[in-house]
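To the team - 4-fluoro-L-phenylalanine complex, inputs and output below.
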Amino acid sequence: MAQKAKFASKIGLVAATVGSAIGLGNVWRFPAEVQANGGAAFLVVYVLCVLLLGIPVMLAEFSLGRSAGTDAVGAYRKFSPRSPWWLAGALPVLASYLILSFYMVVAGWTLEYFVQSLSGALYAGTADASGAVLDGVFRDRMREYICGSSGPLLNTYALILLNLGVLLFGVRKGIERLSNVLMPLLFVLLLVFCGVSMSLPGAADGLRFFFAPDFSKITPAVVISALGQAFFSLSLGMGILITYAAYYPKKTRLMRTAVTVSLLDMMAAILMGVVIFPAVTSFGLGDAELEGTALVFVTLPEVFARMPCTQLWSVLFFLLLLVAALTSTVSIAEVSVSFVQNRFRRSRRAACLIVLLPLFALSALSALSFGSLSGLKLCGLVFFDFLDTLATNIMLPVASILLCLFIGWRRPGVLRGELSNYAEADHRLQRPVAFVLRWIAPALILIVLVSGLL
Ligand code: PFF
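Output:
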């Protein structure tokens, strides 16, 4: 019951879901994907994926979670006992665990940048005598850091411990409350940075790259990346929204919640693009070796270095990003924790340890991917990128197809009831959503998946 009380207020409920959605996916992963996949063409496909597939799949997760009132595997079990459908709930648990393992690493980079901003080390010696920012200095710093061993490893470990602390000592509510205050501030900061970025010389080229689509750039690989990004960013296909919705009050309107969460999440990503791309073209960073993965960590300090009160903006931004990352890691971890707790009947404390301790080994492999383990390649990708691609571009879409089929065909009554909050009249959008979940979403996701893999 205490759990139920957590989401008693409407704002609390939407905010916690937004808190899970907004994170490094928007700030770090989105710009990197846009850059790797041809700019505006990717943006167009991504927006379509969020609107046409993301929102219906989110509604399916919400409906399943709220009506079952338990974790992802339990939810499938409840509605389809003694059938292999539970596997459809196990897949997201596995995917979310893999994601958690490399997400901790990027959260660790954020911690490093926060600490270095605070101490001033990030900006020390980066300007010449006249105060002009030295060429490529932040790129070199990031490269040195990310390719090192002890830095990324220690920060990743610090993040795992931080998560353990939050989950074990029940300060999760506090973190969520903190994030409710800080997330609007993150939007305000992004707006300020958008203004600064757009006034840089050469900014127009960056905006063109981000907003003027060249449709010939759309390939199956671009579409699958856009789909993966949309699902990653909305926290879909990982069981997290099933787990969260289990705590939603019965009167919450699911459609309104799904639309609000999706639009806010998309807005954060697009604002981030407006911050990054003008800066990328203005500073000539487009062809940096570490493009993609390290893009944001190379570009943002360049922007801050050109603003008055550099250190203040930098500290504030990386602090907010750290909190955003923490609300996301805690929510991802919750998927596995509640799974272990419910399925293996463990205490919460034991479940937290069972989930987080193995990360000291698994996350280490990702943390060292760009340094001492850069020679370890799977399917031509370093370990970090391999896990990201496997979990995001393959496992999330597959989990989502299964969810759509389950809700669309096997338990359509769940969606009908939940969308209308069990009122007499059907929800006006119930039919179109059910149609999308039955036919459009599974077919489209499958086509994207297969063509992307071929
Ligand atoms: N959606 C989060 C982000 O964009 O950073 C990441 C995330 C949170 C993924 C929760 C998965 C999850 F279950």
